[in-house]
Write a structure and sequence with these properties.
single chain; alpha+beta; three-stranded antiparallel sheet; 17% strand
């Protein structure tokens, strides 16, 4: 199914829409305007380097989330200690 990226000239909203020959022209989901411009879509590329970079980013986010949780737990414990 053909998915296209659009730019609304009325409200500057960017969105994706499924476009089939039998469907009416795409309209902006934000302002319902019809003054939309189809954008050049980028294509997805999968490579070992890209996959490894995504895994590193994911690990960094997980580590940060865990640190934030530990800090929050410690603050909660200190605040409620001795009650």
């Amino acid at each position: 199914m053909p998915m296209y990226e659009f730019y609304c000239r009325t409200c500057a909203h960017e969105f994706e829409a499924l476009v089939r020959a039998q469907d009416p022209p795409a309209t902006c989901p934000a302002c319902h305007g019809q003054d939309v411009e189809r954008q050049l879509s980028t294509f997805a590329v999968s490579s070992a380097e890209k996959t490894a970079a995504a895994a590193r980013d994911s690990r960094k986010r997980q580590v940060k989330a865990n640190k934030d949780k530990i800090i929050a737990d410690e603050e909660y414990r200190k605040k409620h200690e001795g009650h």
